[in-house]
Amino acid sequence: MPAKGKHRRPKSQRFTRSIAVAGTGGAALALPLMGATGAHAATSASTASTALEKAATAAEKAAISAPAAAEKTATKTYAVKAGDSLSKIADDQSVSGGWKKLYSDNRKAVGEDPALIHPGLKLTIGKKAAGSSGATKSSKSTKPSKASESSAKTAAEPTAKADDTAASSSSSGYTLPVEGATIGTGYKVAGSMWSSGYHTGVDFVVPTGTTVKSVAAGTVVSAGWGGAYGNQVVIQHADGEYSQYAHLSSLSVSAGQTVTGGQQIGLSGATGNVTGPHLHFEIRTTPDYGSDVDPVAYLRSHGVTVG
User: Fold this and answer.
1) Residues 261, 285: Cα–Cα separation, whole Å
2) Superfamily of domain 73-129
3) Does the predicted model carry a pTM greater than 0.70?
4) Where on the phi/psi map is residue 248: left (φ > 0), alpha (ψ -120 to 50), or beta?
């Protein structure tokens, strides 16, 4: 019975091997698939890193632009009104640096004469001085020298201010109406150009825009147009005498206002009948023209050095 031996199933064994080979082949094929998954994970990580970098850059730019935005918000526009002066505006708006800073920031709009501002003129308040940002950057590399310079300046300023004050004011509370000025036309100089036949005050030679101060504490009797005197201020003092400040380009006070010695009352100019800018200053026994006394002698009697 040789035929019985033919019932073995060798083909089944070959099929098993084929499955095993196929399985091995499947495993081999799985390796590239695993590699692709790792590559995908790496790409995702790279994308996340790039997003973080972009977010950090955006945050950095926002931090840099924040001060500029804050600065822009801090600035405002002011429309000049009748009776305004740069000094009055600087005081009312609390401008750091006073009228000089305000003028510096608005020089193009105001022009060469800081006293000649007109109603409706638009002024920028709170503007950063030109070039200050550059100074801030350079200070990082020269910090020691800047600090030394600042210390030297701070030490020198009080002395200079003390010298100026000592030269123009006295312990009695009286002061010169303008700083560092020389007298042009003196008191009682004769001339046909004056209705009284002589000069009723003294003329301090100063350029337009010079700060004019009350020589002592008192009350403003009048402040406005005075005919030939142009814009003028008259102040009554505690001793009963009156001081007059004429030809002003602008006024900083109004009638009825109380002022202190040395307080700004206006800016010098050339309004009224004048041949050039100066401050006409008088001392009177009444608020009216014709009651004049020697203004230089008056100031000296109160301890003020004149001339």
Assistant:
1) 19
2) LysM domain (3.10.350.10)
3) no
4) beta
